[in-house]
Amino acid sequence: MLPLSEGDQQTLLRLAREAIEQSVRKRPVPTTEPAGEALRQKCGAFVTLHKRGRLRGCIGLVEPVRPLYQTVRECAVSAALDDPRFEPVTPAELPLLQVEISVLSPLFDIAPEEIEIGKHGLLISDGFSRGLLLPQVATEWGWDKERFLEETCLKAGLAPDAWREGARIQAFTAQVFAEKSAPAKPSDHAA
Questions:
Q1: 0.70 exceeded by the pTM?
Q2: Into which CATH architecture does domain 108-172 fall?
Q3: Nearest Cα to Cα of residue 1 among 67, 59, 58
Q4: Taking the domain 6-104, which CATH number applies?
Q5: Which of 62, 131, 154, 185 has its CA at a distance of 20 to 30 angstroms from the CA of residue 143?
Q6: For residue range 141-151, what is the model confidence (pLDDT) as tens digits?
């Protein structure tokens, strides 16, 4: 996928915000299709929610099975309501959330020595076990390649050295963008 324009990024952030606000308030999520060919391409994406700088939810689809705008809407709702690590977002939290979107490239096999911290995200799999970490995770935690591989294995429920023992290592890149800050007040249509 080509890099998204600033306008496309802002459209996706708006769609994600609207979907979160409507679903948290138990209202129908808008289904309108945005303009722009790039947003209708099938593409994997993750939506990450932060509250006061801390992770509050993160859900995504790796495979490009739906148009990007639909993937973002669905993942935004799931990040707010269905991330098993957190209680569902409440209406009172909405003004405190910051939305971040990671639009994924297709997966490709990669050798451990080819991994570039900050550029590549990882998917490690063995049998039915799969673990994924976005490119920005290794940078945020200050991990080197080996630690990134180990943490991705742990996320999959595998031994930390499974990447050395035959687990499949795949990588992807991501275009990552976020709201500049959490909104100061709920949006006009979210009351």
A1: yes
A2: 2-Layer Sandwich (3.30)
A3: 67
A4: 3.30.700.20
A5: 62
A6: 999 999 999 99
